[in-house]
Specification:
Family (chains A, B): Belongs to the PrpD family.
Largest sheet of chain A: 4 strands, mixed
Organism (chains A, B): Alicycliphilus denitrificans (strain DSM 14773 / CIP 107495 / K601)
Number of helices of chain A: 19
CATH topology of the largest domain in chain A: 2-methylcitrate dehydratase PrpD
Order of helices and strands of chain A: HHHEEHHHHHHHHEHHHHHEHEEHH
Protein name (chains A, B): MmgE/PrpD family protein
Structural class of chain A: alpha+beta
Largest interface: A-B, 72 and 72 residues
Pfam families (chains A, B): MmgE_PrpD_C (PF19305), MmgE_PrpD_N (PF03972)
CATH class of the largest domain in chain A: Mainly Alpha
Helix content of chain A: 40-55%
CATH superfamily of the largest domain in chain A: 2-methylcitrate dehydratase PrpD
GO molecular function (chains A, B): lyase activity
Strand content of chain A: 5-15%
Number of strands of chain A: 6
Oligomer: homodimer
Chain lengths: 461, 461
């Protein structure tokens, strides 16, 4: 019954185990650092939220009362697993963390928390941490693409592919051999879980999903280092992830353009930042409005009417929201989003909370309408074109346009914008003061030069 | 967008949250205590095995160095989650733990470890512990039946349904309300995972599966107590467990005969003990051989030939194993199993390890053959009938028969046999001495009278 089994190492395991920071091209390194700083804002925005606090309390009750890994902005530390659990829960709460469009996967929330916790525990350098995180992004995005649309219909890809992403990042930090990395993938994939069912009653599972992915992936990597074995073909095996959780899995996506000697497709750099805190369907028009206001020096009061030329999907999702009565609803109101963007230059968490029913917001909201546009609709979903026509109070008819929403790779954020966004999120979360957040973010930009990863926030945060 | 959602409490959540030990009929209480003692032997058999030791090391590295919950026979303690992780890993290693035939689910491994760890942490009584464990069995078995055969083809039901079983047991100990129990089910189900793919290369995932189920279910219950919400219909919702992981799920099984006021179907009592340490297809014939030997006072040397009258499945699985060369293979050799049973009264772990190639074993093995039997084949798989014909050296032709293999509910083990099996497993594991194991097992039989659940092994084990 027992047979000797010839096992070959999957190129993705090989890649993740061997990636060096110096292999990563400079523009991708820079983008990875951008994503790292952007992630930090999301953690600070979420860390005091009720469901996140529940997970952090649980983590602190099950881990040691102090340890090598920072529980960010809780004034606490614990073991790597418990810190990863708490920080990952915080990362995805405000829904301002990054997103990879093709895989519909939010990498930051499941990669940075476990990697940071382990880097702090083993005294890794900043460059080692960032190489591990790039490995996590590259693996997680490809696993998400591999699992496909059928998977995403029922499973939360950030939770499922996220377990593999976390294992890859932690495994790289623990210097797993390619064979050990393959075992870690097996142990991660067999713990891969996360169902969308919670959405039906707006339950708290999203925080549990990122926490679970981070902790389970971390455990898989530690076990692999200790000689614990896992399935050798967890992706495409007859009883593996695709067999259990997908009907349109595409194995070619697992290795699509996998970089070799630095050359190839760096999926990390395809990751988008979220700029506005609203439904994605509102972003192109909001950016187009800002474009035309900048170009013509318009103030909100100059606007008599805005026509958003949109794809059908935007009308389907946003059309019913005429008069929002909750903050959540207002993020699906095209008029509210455009009004906030016009007044504040962005539609952020704070603006929604404080201003969604302010008279200025409502006044401009009432002047916004949507219209189906053939060009925009035809380009969607490959391209999210933003087009608006503005009628000014002095009778002009002006056109605004963006070809890619702000935050996507072709229209990315500047480092100043990333810093500003992170500080806004930190202020929104209220867990740390402005000075402390400012100083922490300034330091985070230097991560690749850190000889050793320490606490991101000074003690006593 | 936000709607008020009317939520009803699932009868299974209601049942699990409200079950009292005094609701459980005395014969079911007794069976539950039998299963509890039987489980303890499995933990001691597995606790020093390599994959189990890896998980225990990981647990101890991530939890506090000491805590309220016993890491059994490791001379250690930690937090409930970490103790549950380690003890659950140990429980399923020797594959001598119990099994519920209808759900193809091994309840003990995923119910007792998290329940024990939490009972120790909160100072529960033995009756509270056992009520919680019955809740775990009843829930886990029904979830396993609900998920069905299509699920089991790809997913390891002990891992997936096990997460729900663990949540139910721990949730009961934490005195969750029915509504909280439903949230705990949601949080458990969305972490439910475990793929059979590891079998292809005999990887270590089985230990990870029980560990993960225990820890994830425990976390779900603790979070629910803290107000953390989960999906309200994690079983049959459009993006729930059945939607993601089954194509033949049967919702009626979730509440099949659910006891009400003590009256109903107690699935706990349907659970089978494993008596022999071999492939289940060998058990009926091994028991029938022992029956005929007892009846006629035969010794192994009296046997000239044994014909096993079997179902086709037994021939398919066992037929190829003619001359086993490894311990694992020998557990699929009908001749070896019958030889060990004839010589030692049972085919246990120790007998396989030490005797599978002993001259006496091989000599009798060579006298055993299988033959398809119409009655046995027609009854299978509802009934596993054992039938043998023995030709004696003095020329007699004798027939042996059992209608249910030893360990199944209709042919269950006596308490003496359970004690003996547990002590054999303890000796096999080698983690504790005979005196200590004997004294611990004697105490375990009194669990329902314990005012407070303490360590199962005296300190210094």
């Amino acid at each position: 019954m027992k047979q000797e089994i010839q096992v070959s190492i999957h190129p993705l395991a090989q890649f993740a185990a061997q990636l060096q920071w110096s292999d990563v091209p400079a523009p991708v390194q820079d983008r990875a650092v951008d994503l790292w700083v952007d992630w930090f804002g999301s953690v600070l925005a979420g860390c005091k939220a009720r469901p996140v606090a529940s997970i952090a309390r649980f983590a602190m009750s099950q881990g040691p009362a102090s340890g090598p890994s920072e529980v960010i902005a809780q004034g606490a530390s614990s073991s790597p697993m418990m810190a990863a659990l708490a920080n990952a829960a915080a990362s995805h709460f405000a829904e301002q963390d990054d997103v990879h469009n093709g895989s519909v996967f939010h990498p930051a929330a499941v990669v940075f928390p476990p990697a940071l916790a382990v880097a702090q525990a083993i005294g890794a350098s900043g460059a080692e941490l960032m190489a591990a995180c790039v490995a996590g992004y590259e693996v997680g995005i490809r696993v998400g693409e591999f699992l496909g649309r059928s998977h995403y219909k029922v499973f939360h890809t950030t939770a499922t592919a996220g377990t593999l992403a976390a294992a890859a990042a932690v495994g790289r930090l623990l210097q797993l051999t390619p064979a050990q990395m393959q075992h870690a993938f097996g142990s991660a994939g067999t713990q891969s879980a996360g169902l969308w069912e919670f959405l039906r009653t707006a339950a708290d599972s999203k925080q549990l999903h990122t926490a679970h992915a981070a902790a389970a992936g971390l455990m898989a990597a530690y076990l692999a280092r200790d000689g614990f074995t896992g399935a050798q073909d967890i992706f495409t095996g007859a009883q593996g992830m695709a067999a259990g959780m997908s009907s349109d899995a595409n194995p070619a996506r697992l290795t699509d353009g996998l970089p070799n000697g630095g050359v190839g497709r760096w999926a990390t750099a395809e990751t988008s930042f979220k700029w506005h805190a609203s439904c994605r369907h509102t972003h192109p028009a909001a950016d187009a409005l800002q474009q035309v206001m900048r170009e013509h020096g318009l103030k909100p009061a100059d606007i008599a009417q805005v026509t958003c030329h949109v794809h059908q999907g935007a009308i389907d999702v946003l059309g019913p929201v005429v008069s929002p009565t909750t903050v959540h609803q207002s993020k699906f109101s095209m008029g509210t989003v455009l009004a906030l963007a016009a007044h504040f230059g962005h539609a952020g968490l704070t603006e929604f909370d404080a201003q969604f029913l302010a008279p200025d917001t409502v006044a401009l909201r009432e002047k916004v309408r949507m219209e189906l546009d053939a060009e925009v609709d035809a380009a969607y979903p490959q391209r999210w074109i933003g087009k608006v026509t503005v009628q000014t109070t002095d009778g002009r008819r002006l056109h605004g346009r963006v070809d890619e929403p702000k935050g996507d790779p072709g229209n990315t954020l500047s480092r100043e914008e990333i810093t500003a966004k992170a500080l806004r999120l930190a202020a929104y979360g209220g867990a740390v003061g402005t000075a402390q957040a400012t100083s922490a973010v300034a330091s985070l930009w230097q991560v690749a030069q850190w000889p050793r990863v320490g606490d991101l926030l000074a003690a006593g945060a």
